[in-house]
Amino acid sequence: QVQLVESGGGVVQPGRSLRLSCAASGFTFSYHFIHWVRQAPGKGLEWVSVISKDGVNKYYADSVKGRFTMSRDNSQNTVYLQMNSLRTEDTAVYYCARDQSSCSGGTCGWWFDPWGQGTLVTVSS
Amino acid sequence: SSELTQDPAVSVALGQTVRITCQGDSLRKFYAGWYQQKPGQAPVLVIYGKNNRPSGIPDRFSGSNSGNTASLTITGAQAEDEADYYCNSRDRSDNVWLFGGGTKLTVL
Q1: What's the CA gap between A26 and B23, in Å, rounded?
Q2: Is the CB of residue B7 less than 8 Å from the CB of residue B21?
Q3: Would you state the pLDDT for residue A8?
Q4: Residue B82: how many CA atoms within 13 Å on its side-chain side?
Q5: CB atoms A117 and B50 under 8 Å
Q6: pLDDT tier at B1 (50, 70, 90 boundaries)?
Q7: How far is A108 from chain B (nearest CA, A)?
Q8: What's the whole-number average pLDDT of chain B?
Q9: Nearest CB to A47 within list B45, B98, B102
């Protein structure tokens, strides 16, 4: 079945780095953009970043721009999120999600399906 | 970038109909996606595009769009529908994506 599985979360001190992985299966990985979305404890969803099918184009939320970097290895069906200069406010469950889109009547939409189970990143001294 | 605005909390009596709304400038240009999230679980897509349901989502879930507002309607709410609901769309002018703040649905 279509599945995304995140790994790499853990406890890290402020200012340090961490790399998350998202392994995909059950679909043609190289056909899809992949997003990272995070959720701080007790808070809502926050979009973090997206990477294009070929890995050339990457876009980031202002809150992580310059600190986080997405990459992908289509031969391994895996996306990565390199997180540097971590801050306490980066503490969250990090989800990866597959991008899908379609247009109808001249209007387009993008949606995230499926999502992984999430991996918890805790930034604390 | 712009924002998506949702009511923080909504309640509905068991078996009744409830509408959850999402407002934002990006919705004048793009369709929203709607997600259901239960405690301790990952979000699940329930509505996408003009008004489409993924396989396995009950037909009591439907979506609509008007101007800068997208709506998720649950017709005949069930106890298992109690959850947080989030809308999202692409930002109108930037290569970023947006989420609403979420609506906590309570089924009474």
Answers
A1: 35
A2: yes
A3: 98
A4: 11
A5: no
A6: low
A7: 5
A8: 95
A9: B98
| Residues A15/A84, Cβ–Cβ less than 8 Å | no
Q: For the purposes of burial, counting CB atoms within 10 Å of the CB of A122, is it exposed (0-12), middle (13-18) or buried (19 or more)?
A: middle
Q: Cα dist. A95→A2, A90, A103, B20, B73 in Å?
A: 15, 13, 25, 24, 26
Flag whether residue B68 sits within 8 Å of chain A, measured between CB atoms.
Answer: no
In this predicted model, what pLDDT tens digit does every residue of B64-105 receive, in sequence order? 999 999 999 999 999 999 999 999 999 988 799 999 999 999
Q: Using a CB–CB cutoff of 8 Å, tell me whether B44 touches chain A.
A: yes
Nearest-Cα distance to chain A for B45, in Å, is 6
A2, A98, A111, best to mutate vs chain B, most B CBs in 10 Å: A111
> What pLDDT does residue B9 have?
98
pLDDT above 70 (res B60): yes
Give the C-alpha separation, B18 to B40, whole Å. Answer: 24
| Amino acid A61: pLDDT | 96
Q: Could you tell me the two tokens for A83?
A: 């997180």
